[in-house]
Fold:
Amino acid sequence: MFEAAGEYPCAVTEGGEEGLELGFLWCANQMEDGDVLTLFIPLRSSLRNSRLLQDWSSYRDVDVVTSRGASFIRSAGPVLAVWPDMDALGQISRSGSRVKALCVAAWVEEWVRPWVTATQAEVLGDVQVWAEVSASDVDPVVEEAMKGLTLTVNHNNTIAAGFEKDQVVGTLLVLHDAGYELDSEELQGWALANGWTGKNPKHLARYVREINSGKRPRTRSMPKSSYLDHLKRKVAGEGSDEE
Structure:
């Protein structure tokens, strides 16, 4: 069972030295006995770009993991994600319950803003760009559909093929055909915050972009004609009867 980002503390700060220091302190304050603080960095050479990162990498209870390749968080504890994009956050999500808290030190704010919005991450420092982190703009019916997919697909599997692809693509096509707005970055951020792991949030965003451009990705499964009414009733709080 994978743990959703909303089930552990999340924070965001800027990616300069001051922000890194705030993020590291926040992570250290989340630590419990036996925890290891993981620095999740783009490349091993990234350590050379920050005196603080170089110093912290030598600490006994700090581990360094790079986003290149199939990297996993090796030890339980808080994670300081240094200069990530949302694909890198997808890599972190594969580590499941080993991630006890996550702070993102953002180099380019727009790379992670959908994740910040979806998790309502705590803002560290006087970072004006994050001063107005709004609630999610995902339509309630679309969000209800996403919640259903989250429970339906096996997150150990890729949604790029098989049953999982059929379920995701079929649902997105029905929502799109009914006129619901689908934003690829918003949905990728929502997926990252709600337990979708690895490359699946990225695949989800790709399907949305393809559908919005007029393409019809193949699927062998389309929801029943009553599916949208079912979602609307759930949003309206009129029960969760099975269709």
Notes: The beta strands are 10-14, 37-41, 62-66, 77-82, 99-106, 122-123. The chain has nine helices and six strands. The chain has a mean pLDDT of 89. The two ends are 26 Å apart (CA to CA).
